[in-house]
Amino acid sequence: MAEAILAGGCFWCTEAVFGQLAGVSAVTSGYIGGHTDNPTYKAVCAGDTMHAEAILVTYDPTVISYADLLDVFFATHDPTQLNRQGGDVGTQYRSAVFLTDDAQRGEVEAAIARAQADRSEPVVTTIEGPARWWPAEDYHQEYWQGEGQRNPYCLAVIPPKLAKLKKGFAERMKG
Q1: Residues annotated as part of the active site
Q2: Domain CATH for 105
Q3: In the structure, what pLDDT confidence band is assigned to residue 175 with cuts at 50, 70 and 90?
Q4: Is-contact 115 76, C-beta < 8 A?
C-alpha cells in the first residue's frame, strides 16, 4: 500500500471523490502543513494554524497509480485557485500536494504540467511537505456517506465533482 496527501479545498468534498476510486482502500480527512500540534476544525477554519484541510489516500499502486490519483485531483478541483475553492476562502482551502517522500516530487511536477496543458489560467497548486499529518475529528470521516447527503453545502458541491470523476475516469471507479 502507498499514501498520497492532497489538499483541494473542503476535505468532505475531496474525500467523497477519492473514496469512489478502485484501488483506494481508505480516505482519511485531516489537517497538514500548519504550525499547531493537534489542530481542531474550529482552529483550522479560523485560519489560525496555517493547516490545510486535506485527505490522506491509502491506495494499492498495482491497481491505481500515483499519477492517476494526481490526474483525478487536478480534474476534480480548481487548481488555478490557490486559497479558494468555490465559496471556501482561506489558506486552509489551498490547492496543494503534500509529499510523503522525495520520489513523489517529479510525478507531481509532471501532473501539474499535464493539468496546465488543459487550462489557460495558471495552475497555482503548491508542492509542500513532507509535513505532519493530523486526522480530523471523527465526525468528519466518511462525511458524504452519512451527514453530507443531507447537508445543503455538500449537495451543491459534491455531485458536480462526482460527475467530473465519472465523465473523465469511469474506468478508474469502483464497480
Answers
A1: 10
A2: 3.30.1060.10
A3: confident
A4: no
Q: What is the pLDDT of residues 89-117, one digit of tens each?
A: 999 999 999 999 989 999 999 999 999 99
C-alpha 72: how far from its chain's center?
10
Backbone angles phi, psi at 4, to 5 degrees: -135, 140
> What is the grid cell recorded at 138?
471523527
Domain count, the chain: 1
For residue 72, the surrounding DSSP H or E stretch is: helix 66-76
Q: What is the pLDDT of residues 129-165, one digit of tens each?
A: 889 999 999 999 999 999 889 999 999 999 999 999 9
Domain limits for position 43: 2-172
**13 membership: H or E segment, kind and range:** helix 11-18
d(CA 42, CA 49) in angstroms, rounded, equals 10
R_g of the chain, CA atoms, integer Å: 15
- Pairing verdict, β 24-32 and 133-135: antiparallel
In eight-state DSSP terms, residue 123 is P
Task: Please give the Cα distance from 75 to 169 (Å, whole number).
Answer: 9
* Burial environment of residue 18 by CB neighbours within 10 A (0 to 12, 13 to 18, 19 or more): buried
